[in-house]
Amino acid sequence: MNKIDATQMENIKKVAEVMADTIQAGRWVHTFGCGHANLPIEEMYPRIGGFVGFHPLCELPLTFFTHITGEMGIDQFLFLERTEGYGKAIMSSWNFDKRDCIWIFSHTGINAVNIDVALEAKRLGMKVIVFGSASQTGDKVPRHSGGKNLFQIADYVVDSCCPLVDASVDLKNHQDKIGPLSTVAFITTVWMTICTVAEILADRGVKLYIHPSHNVPGDTTAHERLDSCIKEYKKRAVGL
Known about the structure:
Blueprint: H1 2-7, H2 9-24, E1 29-33, H3 39-44, E2 54-56, H4 60-63, H5 74-81, H6 86-91, E3 101-105, H7 112-123, E4 127-132, H8 134-137, H9 150-153, E5 156-159, E6 167-169, E7 178-180, H10 182-203, H11 222-237
Parallel strand pairs: 1-2, 1-3, 3-4, 4-5
Antiparallel strand pairs: 6-7
Helix pairs in contact: 2-10
């Protein structure tokens, strides 16, 4: 977290400006990730302290694999995230605008579905923002015929500063480490970014529809503020 703060704030400010422009225009910051890289997307909205403007592109077979075996198990998940063409099919189910941007989370940046999504977003004129282990991935060959990994495709990159193996703790008599870091890094960078977006928009005088806590005794207008968030979300979602 200290390394992210020391090395990535300039990049975070750049992507926050892009996102602020999109949200101010009444458009969407679309968000996408597979497996545990879907967790930062779930953090954004709806979430107490989050605000309207972030749209989750959550594909259930890529985000729900906790059956482990059987229906929507790990074997199917691994197959799908590495299958070229699937990401393009996901994108075909939604309507996009050139004023939109897409925010993709991928630790290694090599799997085909993320690359498909990024390439299709660029074809449609959107800016592509990628968070992940960029410096560790480097120019590693992707699982995609295009030949470029996700970080090489992106317009903007924020490095999660995690080791490529992700796990961090050695164990005696074991080859593999435990204690993965990517989720902690992703959640940290999500709120560093979203808070920066909010500050930019507030400085511009833009009204934010912030999801309030509705569990604080004595706050008599919380549900009213929550209703205004949902109303704004519905208004923006027309046409998706």
